[in-house]
Amino acid sequence: MWGELAARLDLGAGAIVGAPVVRRRLSDLKGCFADAAGYEAALALGDPLVYTVSSVGAGNGSGDLHYGLGVLYPGRVGDEYFMTKGHLHSRREAAEVYIGLRGEGRMLLEDEATGESRLEPLGEGRVVYVPGHAAHRTINTGDVPLVYIGVYPADAGHDYGAIADRNFRMVVVRREGRAMMVERDGLNVH
Ligand code: F6R
Ligand code: ZN
Fold it and tell me: Do the strands 96-102 and 178-183 form a parallel or antiparallel pair, or are they unpaired?
């Protein structure tokens, strides 16, 4: 027998009505920003909410899908925009589709095997396909919350450890008023 199949998005509240919500604050993003001193300085001023994810998993069988609504707030640490922690899927071949609903941002992708990096637009009216074996992180490059839905296989799982250990090779920074991707190694942080 089927359970609940329909859900309502409350975009004003940034949540799927009735779904559990995970909240990530700046203090949860230790090690994500290249500018470690800037990160500590920002934390000394407060611990803002950076993003929330409310998730729905209606079924857990093979072939089932889960989805989550992400709301990533605008902000920066130095030149680096607010971002999600980023992860690989525990089942590496599991892909995901991101559908942008509001705001303006980017999806940073990194192939685990080759290190190939891509920066794709993610925002209102944008869709990004995340292939299997790709570490993925969302970044808010705008002035309003970036709101998106991610749909992924129920058995994808989240592996945060691999990214926490070595981080993404590329960093997205604001330069001359626009977002650009630069190498973490060799990034001059001042
Ligand atoms: C699920 C997925 C998204 C993220 C969300 C928060 O596979 O990719 O729903 O979970 O964007 O990012 P993380 O999980 O990296 O904190
Ligand atoms: Zn994912």
Answer: unpaired
Q: What is the pLDDT of residues 115-166, one digit of tens each?
A: 999 999 999 999 999 999 999 999 999 999 999 999 999 999 999 999 888 8
Output the CA 158–ligand 2 centroid distance in Å: 7
Residue 175 carries which DSSP code? E
User: Atom 8 of ligand 1 has which residue's CA nearest to it?
Assistant: 150
Å from CA of 96 to ligand 2 middle: 6
Which helix (H) or strand (E) covers residue 81, if one does? strand 80-81
Q: How far from each other are the two terminal CA atoms of the chain, in whole angstroms?
A: 59
Ligand 1 contacts CB of residue 68 (under 6 A): yes
The answer to whether the pTM exceeds 0.85 is yes
Integer angstrom CA distances of residue 86 from 6, 29, 64, 163, 183: 28, 10, 23, 7, 17
